[in-house]
UniProtKB/TrEMBL annotation, chains A, B, C, D:
Protein name per its UniProtKB record: Ornithine cyclodeaminase
Family: Belongs to the AgrE/ArgZ ornithine cyclodeaminase family.
Annotated ranges, domain LOR/SDH bifunctional enzyme conserved: 4-102
The Arginine dihydrolase ArgZ/ArgE-like C-terminal first subdomain domain, residue ranges: 103-183
Keyword NAD among UniProt keywords: yes
InterPro entries, A to Z: ArgZ/ArgE-like, ArgZ/ArgE-like_C_1st, ArgZ/ArgE-like_C_2nd, DHS-like_NAD/FAD-binding_dom, LOR/SDH_bifunc_enz_cons_dom
Enzyme Commission designation: 4.3.1.12
Names of required cofactors: NAD(+)
Species lineage: Archaea, Methanobacteriati, Methanobacteriota, Methanonatronarchaeia, Methanonatronarchaeales
Principal EC category: lyase
Reaction equation(s) it catalyzes: L-ornithine = L-proline + NH4(+)
Organism listed in the record: Methanohalarchaeum thermophilum
Keywords (A to Z) from UniProt: Lyase, NAD, Nucleotide-binding
Length: 404, 404, 404, 404
């Protein structure tokens, strides 16, 4: 039998660190003894626990400690972080520390240094006195890569104290909850974020356009409720198709009927932009006078259109290289406080991968699968709402504009 | 090789009989020759076709003809219908004619007699000069049961000519169609049906109440847009829970938050009704002053609350015997022109089983499975809309009341 | 501000009582101070906590305590339980204690008495020195009904210690987990339960028959792995249809092709049974020689066929009164140790409603909705597996028979 | 009122052209008269119909004819195709002919020329005496682009005559069909295709690996049943993770349990490949000795790994530019006879977009949405099977290997 100790500190009840630690030890077939325990008397107080972990052998106990560490348990000894050099470009040394999406610090030169740009499944690079989180694709041969858990501290987010959609919901909203109050709460979250100077990103799928949501989303942008837009080629193409011809995929968005020859409209829309050589130019030339892309340009909103193998065209602003697109998305969501994902599995999961766990995230989709997959892949902070964006978005827009 | 002839008559193009006949022959590995074909010159004209079916042997060709017959192909000879006596109660003779849900006639005493109360998967009983469709559960020993296809004619419905939700939709509405125009069309269908003196049945699941739809549905009833209500115990219990305590399953429908001790409310609601010994009495006594059940009683709307093994209580008006409940439902939907099903798989499929194919049927559910199953089980006329009833119903109600 | 104290005792970490209590207080906007805390040193030791709850006023703090109580927190004072008389048949007094599905005790005549037949959303009746859990439908005027939480103790189940499918899974198995090992673990759970003398109930939907699973399920029954069968009319009808004609809903189960005239087969099957006046007689008369119903009769397995409004027939053994059917189901699952639900939403939820929380429950369905709804409705112990029963059941049967 | 005539020729019943034409005219609110009609006496004979279309005005009737044309109706006059020059790169002239995915011919220099590389939503380029289908992204300024429908003939596929999975299934297989016979039929289709010298493409999602399917798919490749593999980075990464460490996303594929530190394995796998600078090299160096990628390299199977914004790494062989990836996929599926798609929405829809309608296509997914979306987007030939690939693929592999 082998033994190691871990410490838990801070809001270990609010952040659910304590129960998760107990669960994990038992999941991994370990044993434990609580050596010391001081619970904050009041809910604002910090708590402290020292727990002795026992395993079958050193490897077993190390595995358990390593897993606990990812969830906020720390080794009591304060030791310097350890690193190794990257053996090659895009290559990580054995034993590298793989990041969580929680706030993370390393002990470097006797100081706790916060890791910048934290994101799950990446490596921590030590660059002079800075610690930077980098995806494997950006790792260069010879960079100092953190290995092991020594000198690394992880701080999972606390559960929000204020009454909010995030507290109210338990990670997954069944379609059997009162719709009106859910929309109210999402609207309030958006308003509150903007009032406190926060930044909001919207992640959109083309169903937004097909269901007639272009004008509603455009109105949110126009009124300052969107700071970043993440989408694919299809959102832009059909938004512009709608602006130019009143259709989406050839279906008239007023009548719901397919327009004669309408199946060509999205290709006409692409052709039109191609002749202007960019969406931006087309708007400047006055070709496009409404819609999501129009408002993005007018309000100078940052948008990233990421390419996919399903694209027609694609439009000139679309970043067809997926690695570059991912980088641009990563850049765009820095300092974002709230992310609203609607009707896209691909872009929602891709964005979820890049988000730190403290960023509030709402995902609205008619397919419960999208929410399940987001959570399964580690974006556990997401609040999933199973609803029909075609009716949800107009209602949400109305409430945001009315209540703000 | 064996040979038989069938005739097709009437609007065999509009009703899609012709293409279905060709398909079926090929599906069943048969061969055919078109002996005679006169197509209606204009779309209003009737057409006529005589087709020779060839099969490997008599059994094979009979099987094909039998299948074609169910889809509207007739034998050219006009012969009297044949029948046998039911061998026992709830028992059918070998070779009995199993009904489709299409309009059906039998040749009896040299006259074409329409089969009353047509419904799929039943038997035709000859009672004096009448032909009545009966489920196996109602068959009595000794009754005259139609056997074989001789003297039976099936008339599948034509596709609707007027512009309507039924023409516009192709059996299944993806959640990627313009929401606004879909709701408009359903609203128009409801208004049109009532304007022309038609009868509308609503089939509801409890999610209607949980999502805050009680007042909207109540308003549709109050304003005369519902003639029949089919639901289960849970709809009534939670509607009354909402009327009495403002909650559904303990969740406050205004704030969306669970009410303290709210989980007892549905049992209080049941207790309250039990003390009045019926919903009707409770309303008369002034205990309940709003909601779906209240409006049903006030407007004297026919409702059937059918029991299920999931029920708490159940309320006194609930018909706990499923055979009796089915009979009541069957009774209630006679002469209905439009059925709107919302958020219930069990009651939607059960009602679908009882409906003739010419009754317009709309099914709104967030789970596409409900629509798929309805269609798979033979309710092919259903127009499925995959949406969130929590937002769909208020919007629909608003449109119906505004446009009517 | 008002104040009350609660105590937590026992395996409050294993049973997740402690974290849930902290969460609930914060959810309900309360405040707390931990007055006393002794954590079991080792994982087998019991722990103890005394927590002071603070609320805005007496009502608020009472609401919080009441909610905590349902999850295993107790009032420190040991007081006698309180009761009131039922005001009418099927009617509960104001303030009645509404049961959870956890093991429950009442303090009556200075003794802790375990509540018999515990099941969620019911009342506790005191009958001489016994405490019995009863659904509202069985409550008689004048019976002693427990009110308030005084003298009531709730003991939530601990998480299982042994390695098992229940530990391995986190309530919901995504279809992205290794299929082979999941089936292995379910098979092991079945084998283990039988080896230790336990009782297994199967809850089945008709898709089991339509996908060709009749012989596999029959084989599990024949080999002694099923003690109770819960299903509806359709399972029995199509199982017998298959035994008599080799089809299910007219589709040949070997070739997968619809059989000519096959759509009549299920009505022939019903007719056949009706002429024998029961399934049991038909089997005795040698009409049926294989399948699920055949094995149930041969092995004298208890089965409950509960009626629904979708039924054709129904067969004589089907209990058409849903209240009586529910009672029979309740009876049948007493002392069951493992429940395996497959491909039925209605019967799974109905059975889930009746189960104590300590009964291990597995639900296999291709529709993730079934699992979500089961959990949302309080059957939190369920382990959901999203898979295709058509391939899952044969594989499971093979493994159970091979490994046992 | 305006009038135009169209002709239908060939197997207009088998190909369902005739009924579709009648439907479309009525959908579009037109009128018609059948001027001439000769139906093939026997099912092998060709038929002929001349139909007069009437509309409200010239525009209306043109719209109708234009729509009919896309479904195989031809103008009776044989006229030369018309073209215009592309106004710019990636830009199409007004009125360009937008392709269907059906076999298409143009009348050029008095000859019927078949359009090469036909694919939906593209343009037809005339290049000397050849007609080539090109996506808008490949159109160059000045190229001759076909406009209007004059001189264009579309030949929709006939329904297959032989008994096969495609005839048996009606576009969507519910999970309530006999599983065994479905797998048999898919296996037979694969065997038959290879026996007749055909080419099979597999389109795979990572769930194939997570559910333990790597070895089964590898075995299909090894035994010559796959000619082309289309997938994303994740399939390759996790297949290699499994080959190197026995895990997929850190989960041990034998035991189903998460491996300690396993969450790093996919990044180790990427690192390993990066150090070899390609999958190919890593295999040559003996690092990888089993799995899908291994067999692809050993059997020299063409594979396309297309990048997406969700990728980690990505691996060197992944084509990160989505336009280039699409081109490679387009190239790879030329002359493919059968496509089997499993567990991926993105790659299935992307591949479906590129396929001519005569290529047999099977899609297996647990999410019915994938199949619905494929069909909604025009890949109407797809046969959807809602099942669990984790159990489906091993069973399919077993049958293919045993029966071939």
């Amino acid at each position: 039998m082998s033994i190691r100790e871990v410490e838990l500190e801070g809001h270990i009840i609010d952040s659910r660190v304590l129960p998760k630690v107990f669960d994990l030890i038992m999941d991994m077939d370990g044993d434990f003894e609580v050596l010391d325990f001081e619970i904050g008397k009041e809910k604002e107080d910090e708590s402290y626990a020292k727990i002795q972990i026992r395993g079958r052998n050193q490897g077993h106990v190390d595995d358990i400690v390593s897993e606990l560490h990812r969830h906020g348990a720390n080794l009591p000894e304060i030791e310097e972080v350890e690193y190794e050099r990257a053996p090659a470009d895009k290559s990580l040394p054995r034993g590298f520390y793989s990041t969580t999406n929680h706030q993370t610090y390393i002990r470097y030169n006797n100081e706790w240094v916060e890791v910048e740009r934290i994101e799950m499944d990446c490596a921590i690079i030590i660059d002079e006195n800075k610690a930077i989180c980098k995806p494997i694709s950006e790792v260069k041969e010879g960079e100092k890569i953190v290995v092991g858990e020594k000198g690394v501290r992880v701080v999972p987010p606390e559960r929000p104290r204020e009454k909010s959609v995030f507290e109210f919901m338990s990670s997954h909203v069944s379609p059997e909850k009162p719709s009106n109050s859910i929309i109210d709460q999402v609207a309030n979250e958006i308003i509150k974020t903007k009032k406190s100077g926060g930044k909001i990103a919207f992640v959109l799928g083309p169903a937004i356009i097909h269901t007639g949501g272009s004008k509603h989303m455009a109105s949110l942008i126009k009124n300052g409720f969107a700071d970043v837009l993440l989408a694919g080629n299809a959102v832009a193409v059909h938004d512009i198709e709608n602006a130019l011809y009143g259709t989406s995929l050839g279906v008239n968005l007023e009548t719901g009927e397919p327009q004669a020859e309408g199946h060509k409209n999205h290709l006409y829309a692409i052709s039109e932009i191609m002749r202007s050589s960019s969406i931006e130019n087309a708007i400047e030339q006055g070709k496009i006078e409404k819609g999501i892309m129009y408002q993005c340009e007018k309000k100078d909103i940052e948008y990233v259109l990421a390419g996919s193998i399903r694209d027609d065209g694609p439009l000139p602003e679309v970043i067809t290289d997926t690695v570059k697109a991912q980088d641009k998305m990563r850049e765009a969501i820095q300092d974002v406080d709230l992310v609203v994902m609607m009707a896209t599995m691909l872009h929602s999961i891709a964005t979820g991968n890049l988000l730190p766990s403290h960023v509030k995230t709402i995902c609205v989709d008619i397919n419960p699968d999208t929410v399940t997959k987001l959570t399964d892949r580690g974006t556990e902070q997401v609040m999933g709402i199973v609803s029909d964006v075609g009716i949800f978005l107009p209602k949400l827009t109305e409430k945001v504009l009315k209540n703000s």
